[in-house]
Write a sequence for this structure.
C-alpha cells in the first residue's frame, strides 16, 4: 500500500501529471526521445561599454543598458508567471552576466553572493556575474527593479572605463562566454544529458546584448572557437543588437572599434557575429520597449517549446493476434509481426491557473513541512507521512508501525464491503483491457458527422509521426503509413474510434481520432497548427448527461410534428388518397402551425437582427486564439502579487484588456443593430408575484411541548432536527445556524402566544 | 430528482420454469430487481425502493401487518384480510413501505422462493399494482419524486380484475405521474408509451373474460370498458392452451394499463436481453444553473446552463483499522501480499476508525503552531507572504455571467482548441431568453461564426474564455432511427436544421497554447490510396457497434459489480466487466475477420516499425 492510496489519491489518476515538476515525458520504455524538452535556461550577457549607458535624450532618460535590464525583468517575470500558472518549467534558470565591465567593481550584493564563488578572477577581466543562473523568483525581479530605479547604480559600478580593454590578452566577451559555459556546467538547475541517470535535454541559450557589431576584430578566431565549443554543448547563441543613446560623447569612446550608435540604424552581423551566433533573428538595433517585447515574443517560441507528452505505438485492430503470431512464430516470416505506427503526442492547450497558497512559518517566512499522522481511535499512530521539502518516500513506506493494520472497504449504502487497494489495481488493469504498455489502439472507423463535436470530455491531443533521428529509413516508412492513413481519412470523411492507455496503472479511455488540417497565420503565412491527427477523449455512457428540454425545444418539436403532418397530408393527396376538403385540411394545418408558434423560438426577423449584430461585432479576422485575448484575471493576480512583494503603495491595477471591451465601444460599433435586436425580443409574461416560496407544512411529531420550553427559556436545549420539525410544522424556513433556528422558533411562539392572548381578551 | 420505485415480483409457480442455462424465471426476476435496485442505490443515496411479492405464502403489507404470532396466513383466514398473499417490504427488508434500500434488502430478495401451490393463492399482479400504487402515494404524494412501478412477471396466473378499482388506481398513478414498467418474461407482445394517454377517459381496456375463448390478441383494439368482474371460477381444463390464453390476455391487459400510465411492456426472453434493453437508459439528468447572459450592453437575460458531459467517478474507499490486540495485527507485514483483503476475524464494524491529523514543522523539526502560520503564494523560486488583508484584495466579485466579447469566423476556432467538458446554454422557460438564445444559435449557424465570451461559472470566480457554438446536433447512428421514438427523431431533425440552443466550450487565453513547432507533412502516395481506402471500408463500424454512448466505464462497472456481489458473499471474487468473453471496447470479431485481407495489404504496403519495448529503444 503506498502513501498515495492512503491519502485518497484519485483512483483514476486520469490526467497526465503535467503539473508535477518532476514530470518527465516518457515513452513506453521510460526513456526520453529527442523531442523531450528539459528545462530552458537563458544567460543574458549585457555589454557595459560606455555607449550602453548613454541616455537617449530628448525627454527619454533611458539607456540601452536600461533596455537590456528591462528585457531581463520581462523575461524573469514571464518565466516566473509561466512556471506558476502553467505549473511547468520550475527548473528554468535565468542568469545575467555583464561583460566589458570596469576592472574593479564594488562589493557583491546579496543577489550575487550565491553561486559565484569564482568570479572574482573574471571581474578583473571585465566580466561580472550580476545574477547567477538559477530559477528566478520575486527577489530577482526586485533586485533588477533596484537597478532600473537607479537605487543601485549599475553605471557607476560597472561601466567600462575608456580605453580599458586595449591591452587585454583575452576579449571580455570571450571570457564571458567561458563564464557562461562554466555556469551552465555548475548550476544546480541544469541537468546535463550526459551526466545524469535521467537523461533530459535542457535547452541552453546565451543572449548577447550589445551595440557593437565588430567588437574584437583581432580576436574573432578565438571567439569562434569558444562559440563552437558552446554550440557543441547545445548552447544557442543569439545577439540582440542595441541602439544606444545620442552620440555627443562619441569622441570619448575611442577604443578603436567604431561603435555604432543611436544614429546608425544598421548592425552588420557579417562583420563579427555571424560566425559566433547560432542564428540572427534580429537584424537592426532595437531601442523601444515595443521592439524588445516583440523580439522576446519571437524567442518565446524557442524557449517555450511544448513537451512531447508521450510517444508510443498506434496499433491496428488485429494487434493482439499479431503478437500471438509473433510469439508462436516458427519461421522468420512471422517474426516482427508486432508492428505499429509510432507516434508522438502533444497536448498543446494548457489552460493557465492561479497557483494555490502554501502554509508558511510567519517568523522565518519559509514554507512549513506538512506532516500527516494516521491514527486509530486509541490514538496510536499508524503511519506518518511528510509532505513538502523533506518528504522521504522510502522512509514513509518501510518504517511505518501500523500500515499493515489498515483495511479498505467500499461503502455500499452504509455497509462496508471488503475491497483492497491491490484489488482496485487489478480491476483497473482489467478495465484497461490488460494493456501492458502505453498504447493507442485503432478500433474502427465511422463517418465523421456521426460523432458530435461536443462529445469531447477533455482537451485534445495532437499526434504526429514519431521523430527519431536514428533510423531514417524506418522513420520514413512510419511517416508514409501515417500520412497515407490520414489522407485516406480525409478523403473518405471518416474518423477513427480508438482506445488509449497513456500509462500503465491508469485506466484506458475511448477516443475519437480526427484528421487535423494545417492552420496558417493569414498575415505571416506561418504555421499555427501543423497537419496531423487529433485525439479527443470521448465520454463513456456514465459521463453523458441529459439536459432538460427548454421551451424553445418543445415548441420546435411541436412545429416539426405539424410539419410532418402537413407533409403526410400532401403525400396522401399525391397518392390519390381521398381529399374531401383539401382547403380545409391545409388551412387546419396552417392554423395549427400558427398556434404552435408560442414565441419561444426566434422569429425570422429576430434571427436576422442577431445576424446583423454578429456581423457588426465580428472582431478582427486575424485574431489568434492562444496568442491574443489576454487572461485579465490572471494578469491582475500577478500584478497584485508582485505589488505586494514589492510593497508598492502606489499599485494601480491595469484596467485595459482586449477581453474586457468597454460598453461604449460596443455601442459605437453596433448600437443600432443591438437596439433593433433588443426591440424584437419578446417579453416574458409577468409571473404572478408569489410572496416567498410556500413551504409545505409537515406535522411536528417530536412530542415536545414547545410553549413550555419557550416559557422556561430552554429552547436552546433542543436538537437541530427537533427545531426543524417545529419549523416545518409552521412552514418556516430551515436554513441557518442553530441560533437562527432557535430565534425563529422563539419569534413564532411569541407571536402565536400573543395572538392567543388577544383572542382571549376579545 | 430522487426516484421512488416499487418492484413487483411474481412468485407464482410458473416462475419456476427454467431457462436453458439452468436459472429459473424467478431467478431472472430477482436478478433484474436486484440489479435495478443497485443501480438506484448507486445513482443516489436518496432514491427509495419498495418490493412487493405476488402469490406469496405470507400476507404482509402496509394495509395489513399481522402480529408475529399469526404471521402465516393460510387461505382459510378471515375474508377481511385485504390483498391476501401479497408480501411487501422495503428499507432494510423489515419495513413494509417504500424506503431507502440497504444491502439487507438485496439479501432478502435473494432469499425469496417461488411459492409452490401458488395456483390456489391469491395476490395477482393487479393486487400487486394496487398495493404498490398506494404505497407510492402514501410515501411520495405531493413530494418531488420520479415514481415508477416495475412489474416482473410471466403473467401466467389468473387475474381478478375489479375494473372500477383498477381504473381508479390507474388514474391515481396518472395523477402521481407514476409510470408502469412491465418486464414480461417470455411475453409475446410488447409496447412502449412515452407518456400517459391523453384525455380524462377513465376506461381501462380489459380483455374479455378469460373463460370466453375469444381469439383477440390485439389489446389496443380491445373493446371499451369491460368489467372482468369477480370471475374467479376455477377452470379445471388448465393445460398449455389455457395458460397461453391467460398469458396472452394478461399481456394485453398490461399493455392497456401501461398505455394509460405511460411506460412499457417489454417482452424479454432472457436476462441478457433485459439488460441490453435497460442499459442506456441511465443517463442522468444534468443540473441546470442560472446565468446572466449578456449578449450586448443593455441586452441581458437569465438563461440556464448545464453540463453535457461530466466524468463519472468512483467513491473513495473507506479505511478501517484492525485493533492491535488481534492476532492478525501481529503478523509481519510482508507475509501476505494482499493483507488488506480477507482473513481478518474482525468484522468491519468492530474495526477502529482512522483519523488523519495534520501538523506543520519548520526546517529544524520544530512544530509551527497554527497561530504562527500564514499563507503565501509561490512566485517562482520565492514565496510571497500574504496577510489576510492582502488576500482580501484578490477576491473577484462577480455574479455568474456569460458576456459576449465578440464574434470570429468558426474557421479560426479549430476543434483542437476546444477544451471539454462542454456546457449547453438554453433559455429554459423564459420566452425572451429562449428567443434570444435561438436567434443567436441560428445567427451563428448561418454566418458560420463563433461567439467569444467571458464566462464566470461560479459566483466570485475568475472568468474563463469560452466559445459559444450553435448546437447543431446530428442524427446519430449510435441510436439508430429505428430505435428512436417519433418524437426523438423529430427533435433530432429539427435541431440539425435549426439549432435553438448553444454549446459552450472553454478556449485558451493568450499564452495557453504551445504549438509543437513546424511539422511539415509530405504529400501522400497516390498509388497507395486503394490500400488505405480498403482498410477504412473494411473497418467501418455500423449501427451500435462500439457505440461509446452505450458503453459504461468498465472500471466503474466492475467496481460496483464486485461490491454488489460481495454484499451477498463477502468472499466473492472480483467481477470484471471487461473480460475475454465479453469486451465492449474491442473491434467486433465479425468486422475484424472481414478486415483481415485489408489489414494484411496495409501491413504489406507500409512496412511498420516494431512496436514492442525492446525495439522501441532503438
Amino acid at each position: 500500500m503506498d502513501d498515495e492510496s492512503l491519502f485518497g489519491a484519485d483512483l483514476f489518476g486520469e490526467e497526465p501529471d503535467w503539473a508535477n515538476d518532476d514530470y518527465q515525458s516518457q515513452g513506453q520504455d521510460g526513456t526520453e526521445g529527442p523531442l523531450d524538452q528539459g528545462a530552458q535556461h537563458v544567460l543574458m550577457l549585457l555589454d557595459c561599454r560606455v555607449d550602453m549607458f548613454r541616455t537617449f535624450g530628448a525627454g527619454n532618460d533611458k539607456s540601452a543598458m536600461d533596455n537590456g535590464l528591462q528585457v531581463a525583468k520581462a523575461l524573469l517575470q514571464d518565466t516566473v508567471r509561466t512556471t506558476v500558472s502553467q505549473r511547468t518549467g520550475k527548473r528554468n534558470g535565468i542568469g545575467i552576466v555583464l561583460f566589458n565591465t570596469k576592472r574593479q567593481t564594488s562589493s557583491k550584493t546579496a543577489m550575487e553572493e550565491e553561486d559565484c564563488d569564482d568570479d572574482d578572477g573574471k571581474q578583473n577581466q571585465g566580466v561580472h556575474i550580476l545574477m547567477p543562473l538559477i530559477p528566478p523568483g520575486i527577489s530577482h525581479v526586485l533586485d533588477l527593479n533596484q537597478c532600473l530605479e537607479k537605487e543601485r547604480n549599475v553605471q557607476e559600478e560597472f561601466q567600462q572605463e575608456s580605453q580599458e580593454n586595449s591591452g587585454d590578452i583575452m576579449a571580455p566577451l570571450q571570457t564571458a562566454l567561458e563564464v557562461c559555459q562554466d555556469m551552465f556546467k555548475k548550476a544546480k538547475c541544469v541537468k546535463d544529458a550526459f551526466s545524469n541517470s535521467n537523461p533530459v535535454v535542457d535547452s541552453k541559450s546565451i543572449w548577447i546584448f550589445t551595440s557593437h557589431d565588430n567588437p574584437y576584430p583581432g580576436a574573432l578566431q578565438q571567439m569562434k572557437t569558444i562559440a563552437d565549443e558552446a554550440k557543441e554543448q547545445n548552447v544557442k547563441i543569439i545577439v540582440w543588437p542595441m541602439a544606444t543613446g545620442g552620440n555627443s560623447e562619441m569622441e570619448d569612446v575611442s577604443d578603436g572599434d567604431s561603435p555604432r550608435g543611436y544614429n546608425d540604424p544598421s548592425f552588420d552581423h557579417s562583420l563579427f557575429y555571424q560566425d559566433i551566433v547560432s542564428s540572427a533573428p534580429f537584424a537592426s538595433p532595437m531601442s523601444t520597449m515595443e521592439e524588445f517585447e516583440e523580439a522576446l515574443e519571437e524567442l518565446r517560441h524557442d524557449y517555450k517549446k511544448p513537451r512531447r507528452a508521450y510517444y508510443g505505438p498506434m496499433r491496428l485492430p488485429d494487434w493482439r493476434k499479431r503478437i500471438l503470431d509473433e510469439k508462436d512464430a516458427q519461421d522468420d516470416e512471422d517474426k516482427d509481426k508486432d508492428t505499429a505506427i509510432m507516434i508522438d503526442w502533444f497536448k498543446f492547450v494548457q489552460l493557465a491557473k492561479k497557483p494555490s497558497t502554501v502554509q508558511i512559518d510567519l517568523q522565518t517566512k519559509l514554507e512549513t513541512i506538512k506532516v500527516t499522522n494516521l491514527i486509530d481511535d486509541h490514538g496510536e499512530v499508524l503511519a506518518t507521512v511528510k509532505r513538502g521539502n523533506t518528504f522521504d518516500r522510502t522512509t514513509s513506506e518501510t518504517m511505518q508501525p501500523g500500515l499493515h493494520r489498515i483495511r479498505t472497504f467500499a461503502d455500499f449504502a452504509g455497509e462496508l464491503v471488503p475491497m483492497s487497494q491491490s484489488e482496485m489495481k487489478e480491476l483497473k488493469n482489467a478495465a484497461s483491457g490488460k494493456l501492458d504498455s502505453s498504447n493507442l489502439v485503432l478500433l474502427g472507423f465511422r463517418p465523421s458527422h456521426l460523432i458530435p463535436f461536443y462529445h469531447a470530455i477533455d482537451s485534445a491531443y495532437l499526434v504526429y509521426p514519431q521523430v527519431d533521428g536514428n533510423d531514417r529509413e524506418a522513420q520514413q516508412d512510419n511517416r508514409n503509413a501515417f500520412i497515407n492513413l490520414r489522407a485516406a481519412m480525409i478523403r473518405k470523411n471518416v474518423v477513427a474510434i480508438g482506445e488509449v492507455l497513456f500509462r500503465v496503472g491508469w485506466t484506458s479511455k475511448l477516443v475519437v481520432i480526427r484528421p487535423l488540417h494545417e492552420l496558417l497565420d493569414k498575415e505571416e503565412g506561418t504555421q499555427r497548427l501543423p497537419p496531423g491527427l487529433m485525439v479527443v477523449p470521448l465520454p463513456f455512457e456514465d459521463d453523458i448527461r441529459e439536459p432538460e428540454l427548454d421551451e424553445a425545444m418543445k415548441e420546435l418539436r411541436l412545429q416539426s410534428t405539424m410539419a410532418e403532418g402537413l407533409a403526410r397530408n400532401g403525400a396522401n393527396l399525391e397518392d390519390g388518397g381521398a381529399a374531401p376538403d383539401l382547403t380545409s385540411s391545409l388551412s387546419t394545418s396552417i392554423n395549427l402551425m400558427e398556434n404552435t408558434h408560442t414565441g419561444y423560438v426566434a422569429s425570422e426577423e429576430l434571427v436576422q437582427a442577431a445576424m446583423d449584430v454578429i456581423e457588426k461585432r465580428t472582431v478582427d479576422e486575424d485574431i489568434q486564439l492562444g496568442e491574443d485575448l489576454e487572461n485579465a484575471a490572471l494578469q491582475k493576480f500577478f500584478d497584485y502579487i508582485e505589488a505586494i512583494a514589492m510593497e508598492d503603495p502606489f499599485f494601480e491595477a491595469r484596467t485595459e484588456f482586449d477581453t474586457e471591451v468597454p460598453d461604449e465601444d460596443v455601442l459605437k460599433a453596433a448600437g443600432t443593430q443591438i437596439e433593433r435586436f433588443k426591440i424584437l425580443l419578446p417579453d416574458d409574461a409577468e409571473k404572478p408575484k408569489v410572496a416567498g416560496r410556500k413551504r409545505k407544512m409537515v406535522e411536528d411529531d417530536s412530542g415536545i411541548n414547545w410553549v413550555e420550553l419557550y416559557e422556561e427559556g430552554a429552547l436552546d436545549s433542543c436538537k437541530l432536527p427537533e427545531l426543524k420539525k417545529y419549523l416545518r410544522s409552521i412552514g418556516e424556513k430551515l436554513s441557518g445556524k442553530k441560533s437562527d433556528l432557535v430565534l425563529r422558533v422563539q419569534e413564532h411562539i411569541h407571536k402565536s402566544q400573543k395572538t392567543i392572548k388577544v383572542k382571549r381578551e376579545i | 430528482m430522487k426516484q421512488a420505485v416499487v418492484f413487483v415480483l411474481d412468485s407464482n409457480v410458473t416462475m419456476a420454469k427454467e431457462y436453458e442455462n439452468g436459472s429459473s424465471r424467478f431467478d431472472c426476476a430477482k436478478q433484474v430487481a436486484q440489479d435495478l435496485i443497485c443501480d438506484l442505490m448507486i445513482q443516489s443515496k436518496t432514491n427509495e425502493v419498495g418490493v412487493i411479492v405476488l402469490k406469496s405464502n405470507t400476507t404482509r403489507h402496509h394495509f395489513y401487518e399481522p402480529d408475529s404470532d399469526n404471521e402465516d396466513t393460510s387461505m382459510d383466514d378471515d375474508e377481511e384480510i385485504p390483498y391476501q398473499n401479497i408480501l411487501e417490504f422495503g428499507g432494510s427488508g423489515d419495513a413494509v413501505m417504500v424506503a431507502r434500500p440497504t444491502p439487507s434488502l438485496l439479501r432478502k430478495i435473494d432469499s425469496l422462493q417461488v411459492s409452490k401451490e401458488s395456483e390456489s393463492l391469491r395476490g395477482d399482479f393487479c393486487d400487486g399494482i394496487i398495493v404498490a400504487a398506494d404505497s407510492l402515494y402514501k410515501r411520495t404524494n405531493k413530494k418531488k419524486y420520479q415514481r415508477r412501478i416495475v412489474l416482473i412477471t410471466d403473467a401466467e396466473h389468473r387475474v381478478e380484475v375489479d375494473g372500477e378499482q383498477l381504473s381508479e388506481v390507474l388514474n391515481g398513478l396518472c395523477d402521481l405521474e407514476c409510470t408502469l414498467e412491465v418486464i414480461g418474461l417470455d411475453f409475446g407482445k410488447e409496447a412502449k408509451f412515452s407518456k400517459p394517454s391523453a384525455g380524462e377517459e377513465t376506461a381501462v381496456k380489459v380483455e374479455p373474460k378469460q373463460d370466453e375463448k375469444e381469439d383477440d390478441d390485439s389489446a389496443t383494439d380491445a373493446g371499451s370498458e369491460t368489467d372482468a368482474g369477480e370471475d374467479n371460477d376455477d377452470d379445471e381444463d388448465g393445460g398449455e392452451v389455457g395458460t397461453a390464453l391467460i398469458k396472452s390476455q394478461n399481456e394485453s391487459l398490461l399493455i392497456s394499463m401501461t398505455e394509460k400510465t405511460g411506460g412499457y411492456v417489454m417482452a424479454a426472453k432472457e436476462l441478457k436481453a433485459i439488460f441490453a434493453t435497460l442499459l442506456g437508459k441511465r443517463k442522468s439528468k444534468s443540473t441546470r444553473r442560472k446565468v446572466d447572459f449578456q449578449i450586448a450592453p443593455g441586452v441581458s437575460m437569465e438563461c440556464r446552463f448545464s453540463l453535457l458531459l461530466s466524468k463519472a467517478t468512483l467513491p473513495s474507499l473507506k479505511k478501517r483499522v484492525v485493533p492491535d490486540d488481534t492476532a492478525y495485527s501481529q503478523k509481519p507485514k510482508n507475509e501476505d501480499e494482499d493483507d488488506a483483503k480477507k482473513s481478518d476475524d474482525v468484522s468491519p464494524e468492530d474495526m477502529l476508525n482512522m483519523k488523519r491529523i495534520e501538523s506543520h514543522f519548520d526546517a529544524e523539526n520544530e512544530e509551527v503552531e497554527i497561530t504562527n502560520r500564514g499563507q503565501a503564494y509561490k512566485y517562482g523560486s520565492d514565496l510571497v507572504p500574504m496577510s489576510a488583508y492582502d488576500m482580501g484584495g484578490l477576491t473577484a466579485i462577480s455574479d455568474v455571467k456569460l458576456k459576449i466579447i465578440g464574434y470570429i469566423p468558426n474557421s479560426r476556432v479549430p476543434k483542437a482548441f476546444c477544451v471539454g467538458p462542454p456546457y449547453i446554454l438554453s433559455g429554459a422557460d423564459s420566452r425572451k431568453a429562449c428567443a434570444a438564445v435561438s436567434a443567436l444559435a441560428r445567427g451563428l449557424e448561418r454566418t458560420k461564426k463563433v461567439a467569444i465570451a467571458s464566462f464566470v461559472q461560479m459566483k466570485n470566480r475568475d472568468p474563463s474564455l469560452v466559445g459559444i457554438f450553435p448546437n447543431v446536433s446530428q442524427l446519430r447512428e449510435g441510436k439508430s432511427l429505428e430505435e428512436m421514438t417519433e418524437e426523438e427523431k423529430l427533435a433530432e431533425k429539427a435541431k440539425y436544421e435549426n439549432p435553438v440552443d448553444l454549446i459552450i466550450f472553454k478556449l485558451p487565453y493568450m499564452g495557453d497554447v504551445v504549438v509543437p513547432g513546424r511539422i511539415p507533412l509530405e504529400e501522400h502516395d497516390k498509388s497507395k490510396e486503394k490500400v488505405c481506402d480498403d482498410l477504412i471500408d473494411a473497418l467501418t463500424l455500423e449501427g451500435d457497434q462500439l457505440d461509446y454512448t452505450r458503453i459504461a466505464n468498465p472500471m466503474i462497472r466492475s467496481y460496483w459489480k464486485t461490491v454488489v456481489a460481495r454484499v451477498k458473499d463477502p468472499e466473492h471474487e472480483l467481477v470484471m466487466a471487461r473480460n475475454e468473453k465479453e469486451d465492449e471496447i474491442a473491434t467486433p470479431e465479425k468486422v475484424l475477420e472481414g478486415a483481415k485481407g485489408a489489414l494484411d495489404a496495409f501491413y504489406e504496403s507500409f512496412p511498420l516499425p516494431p512496436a514492442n519495448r525492446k525495439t522501441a529503444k532503438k
In short: The radius of gyration of chain A is 36 Å.
